[in-house]
Amino acid sequence: MNDAKIRLHVDQPLGPGQTVNLDRDQAHYLFGVMRLVEGAGVLLFNGRDGEWLARVQDAGKRGGVLIGEAQTKPQGAPPNLWLLFAPVKKARTDFIVEKAVEMGVARLVPVTTEFTNSERVRVDRLQAHAREAAEQCGATWVPEVAEPIRLDRLLAGWDSARTIMYCDEAAPSGMAALRAADLGNSADPAPGAWAILIGPEGGFSNSERTRLRGLDYGCTVSLGPRILRADTAAVAALTLWQVQLGDWR
Amino acid sequence: MNDAKIRLHVDQPLGPGQTVNLDRDQAHYLFGVMRLVEGAGVLLFNGRDGEWLARVQDAGKRGGVLIGEAQTKPQGAPPNLWLLFAPVKKARTDFIVEKAVEMGVARLVPVTTEFTNSERVRVDRLQAHAREAAEQCGATWVPEVAEPIRLDRLLAGWDSARTIMYCDEAAPSGMAALRAADLGNSADPAPGAWAILIGPEGGFSNSERTRLRGLDYGCTVSLGPRILRADTAAVAALTLWQVQLGDWR
Question: Any CB–CB contact under 8 A between A137 and chain B?
Fold first, then answer.
């Protein structure tokens, strides 16, 4: 019986009868915080083998062993969508990462723009947030959080096969632009490679805006008549993309 | 010249030459924190008279006076959309309120459901968050935050002319349901009265779900294949509504 409430991402192989060794943090969480006992069920995923129901075989204070029982979900994959975002204040950056994973992205890239005004980005912390969000939202993968890169360098090395959607107040309404970008073929199961670019709280500079408008692989959308914070804009833009081109269709 | 960067909601009338007295908190913010001096511009709105550029006439530690110069924006109004939300943990509830104002709602109603698991809702705190969000996002109104109400009582007294959109995993995809609800007439400038209902982290109970499904004035939408947190679901649902029926069209 699948009575498991807790989902954990692990780095080890998953399969029937496969043992999974827990690290100290995981053991503390399962046995110290959540008080699981031997025989209790836990859902595991590693990004390769789908989701598995596993049972506690050995519960220790500093470690523990689970044993794989049955696959509960096949391995899935997010749409081929990246989120490029200018880091903002700490809590809101964490929020953007969490929301992007729930909404379904394959990769997160912190991007430094001219008006980016933020402390150093700690990729390991953001990656841990991405992992927790994947555990919570039912995804069988954890999106990678890339090292931060300057916007001009990112664009200089960009693969033009990946369309960049970015938000611009002067753009046509969101869905209209996306429909046009989709070339009228919204039933196409493969929308191709995309990235959504979310600027910092101060917006893009004039030269960045000119650069973005000139991209052959750019697509602008409008996010309504009010000024959205960066974290709101990220969720709204991801919603527009997912419902028109992604796995919400 | 409109050099004003700061927007403030005030309760007093706005007009040319009209004096506006600041309370202690506003004076502290403008003169203590933001260091405005006499003659500096501030944008004001009160929900009735549009947005006005005003100038500092008197800057004190415990108060101050601004004087209205020129209207910078006509009075606007949000779409006739309410957000009904089950309060979650403190930071996420604050977040839902902030996001709802940015996304454009007319009224926020905290709703207690069977699985709502949260501390007492402080309406005054949430109303202050709504005001700050309105100041930040450029709205000329502040949505009202209503007193919390139990879902069963709310539905018992509901005006059936206001459609309730709520999220259900078994529903058709978001846009399809909204298009159907809009009776194929998405060019209609007046979509009528709507409310979006966001459940608690644990979802609705079976009896609540049955009740919602039986509503004549209900409309279900799906928010994709992953489990969204309540705050993510609120922004995503508001995006779908705004782009299809609201002021993002």
Answer: yes
